[in-house]
Amino acid sequence: MVIQQPSNQIKLTNVSLVRLKKGKKRFEVACYKNKVLEWRSGIETDLDNVLQIPNVFLNVSKGQTAPTAELQKAFGKDTSVNDIILEILKKGEMQVGEKERSAQLERVHNEVVSIVASKLVDPRTKKVYTTGMIDKALDMLSSQAHQLQEKEKEKKDAAASGTASPATGESGEAKPQPTKSLPIWTGVSTNKSAKSQALEAMKALVAHQPIPVARARMRLRITCTTNVLKQAVKAPKGEANKDGEEGEKKAPGTVKDKILSFVEQVESQDVMGQEWELVGFVEPGAFKILSDFIGSETKGQGRVEVLDMAVTHED
């Protein structure tokens, strides 16, 4: 009877695996949960805090380490074990438990809802919604998207079996093809950042309006020299003028009129010497166009300063 001593046993508890297939073999390293993501994001830099044991395995659960010959064949003879571990951590697929995956998904979901709630307002009152209302609205969009996907799948299956044609109606006439589809929301995932998913969620909410929503306006300070404000806005090059020749055709309105057309609400407006200053509210979608216009038309004599990224009202 073999007596198992603590010295010849390796117990890996609370383990998270990172796997990488190289050549025809799959290699694994045993890590502590949550530490791999921290290491990949740069928060954790000490490998000793990431790895449970600094070895490369063929099968962690069986304690089967990878032979040196196998490592050299897959990664090259001059590659050290430490470099192999780093490559697996960088490029490998992380295997996590169901509970950890659910916790991570919930964490991302809460972050997305929080970001969306801070950027959207009721267009009538300009007040923010609670995270609970935003959560319910996103659930409605997710349910609608999944129902739509199911219907599309049924149509494709029916078309493939020859029982129906999705492109024609009952009379046999071709149905008009739908225009550009609206943004859809199917729920959060752990493969994208919360910020990018929040942007997708906002686009879907604004497009479908399950509840009345609008992007919170930006508060800007716009400054420009007075002599530039009086200049007429020039039309883009290439447009034909009345004589049929290509050139710069002056569009109606001045630079000041064009700037004011972007501003939804003027908070203050003043002229100090040779400089005009305006503080007002602009839709986020118009900010880049306004900024580009001022940069090109004023040739450095005008500028835009963001005072508040999202102006909201809270009770």
From TrEMBL:
Residue stretches making up the Ribosome maturation protein SDO1/SBDS central domain: 110-216
Sequence ranges assigned to domain Ribosome maturation protein SDO1/SBDS N-terminal in this UniProt record: 14-101
BP-aspect Gene Ontology terms: cytosolic ribosome assembly
Main location: cytoplasm
Biased composition range(s): Basic and acidic residues: 148-158
Localization in the cell: Cytoplasm; Nucleus
One Pfam match: SBDS_C
Residue ranges annotated for the Ribosome maturation protein SDO1/SBDS C-terminal domain, each copy included: 247-309
Classification via InterPro entries: Ribosome_mat_SBDS_N_sf (IPR036786), Sdo1/SBDS (IPR002140), Sdo1/SBDS-like (IPR039100), SDO1/SBDS_C (IPR046928), SDO1/SBDS_central (IPR018978), Sdo1/SBDS_central_sf (IPR037188), SDO1/SBDS_N (IPR019783)
Residue numbers spanned by region Disordered: 144-186
MF-aspect GO terms: 5.8S rRNA binding; guanyl-nucleotide exchange factor activity; large ribosomal subunit rRNA binding; rRNA primary transcript binding; small ribosomal subunit rRNA binding
Record bears the keyword Oxidoreductase: no
Gene3D superfamilies: 3.30.70.240, Ribosome maturation protein SBDS, N-terminal domain (3.30.1250.10), SBDS protein C-terminal domain, subdomain 1 (1.10.10.900)
Gene Ontology cellular component terms for the protein in this record: cytoplasm; nucleus
Keywords per UniProt: Cytoplasm, Nucleus, Ribosome biogenesis
Source species, domain of life: Eukaryota
Ranges annotated as biased composition (Low complexity): 159-171
Self-association and partners: Associates with the 60S ribosomal subunit.
NCBIfam families attached to this UniProt entry: RNA_SBDS
Family named by the database record: Belongs to the SDO1/SBDS family.
Name this polypeptide is given: Ribosome maturation protein SDO1
Species in which this protein is naturally found: Neurospora crassa (strain ATCC 24698 / 74-OR23-1A / CBS 708.71 / DSM 1257 / FGSC 987)
Taxonomy of the source species: Eukaryota, Fungi, Dikarya, Ascomycota, Pezizomycotina
